[in-house]
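Deliverable D4.2, example record:
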Amino acid sequence: MISTKNLISTIEEVPTEWIFEYYLNLEEKLTGQTIQIKSIFNPRERTPSMFIFPGDTDTNKYFFKDYSSGNAGNAVKLVMLLSDVPYWKAKLKVIQDYNEYKLNNKYAPIKEFKVYNKYQVTDYEIRHWTNLDQNYWSMYKINSRLLEVYNVSPLAYYTMSKEEDSKKKVIKIEGRNIYGYFKEDGTLYKVYQPKVRKNKFIKVRNYIQGSEQLKYDKEFLIICSSLKDLLAFNKLKITNGECIAPDSENTLIPEPALKKITEKYNDVCVVFDNDEAGIKSMKKYQDKFNFKYVILDLEKDISDAVKAHGIEKTRDTLFKLLKQQLRPNETTTKK
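Output generated by the structure prediction step:
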């Protein structure tokens, strides 16, 4: 006879680390650390971009963020997306699967849940611009004057540190093409490393890129996917539009801040990468804020289009797309 005295009936009784271990078939136990894996939602992904990480230490719960697809949330949200069922059905599925697992396996939830500190940028040094920097940015027709307006500076190095087991661990990163993105007050908010395959962007703090440079004297607001695309958009001279960019195209700009900005424009359009993740993110802005979006199919994004096809062709192509979407007056462009 099968005993049911140890079976559970509510989702709160299921350890969230078990949910991730079980449904993602993880090779390591989750004991409070953050792990990075290839996207479960994008089988073609080469570089792992899905993070499983602990939240509030008092609740010992795990969450996920998949930068490839833009999906994020708690453990039940993961199962909901994987099983393509409503949230309430996902909870029932987790309870049923967990009970079945307990009947056939021995599973002991971790007794000590220790959240590990993450490395954070703690120091950096700004250097002078070089010919190598000029060669990189000029591929996208971006000059030093525009970089200065948006507070982009080359870095000689930056350091990352964390406290672990009462010891401070420090890593110093040096390289030729490392750039710091700064606010107007000189605060570093992001490190950009275009020549590395992993960790090209290191976020230091939340910031709406381009927000401090807005003059609010144009009809339209364009939301690009990155600061580099924002800079390339400026070179197109679409004179009736200003531009901002979120921390990442997979992260929605907070609604209060976005509303405060967008209410000063006649219309808003989103121009992200034309891959699956970018289009999915644009649709999220459409669903949540009713913003229009356009798909620039010249290259993956605006900056790559400028690099491959030049300013004039990119401008003409994007201008036609924006003209079809934006209202009430036609966008004008300086030829």
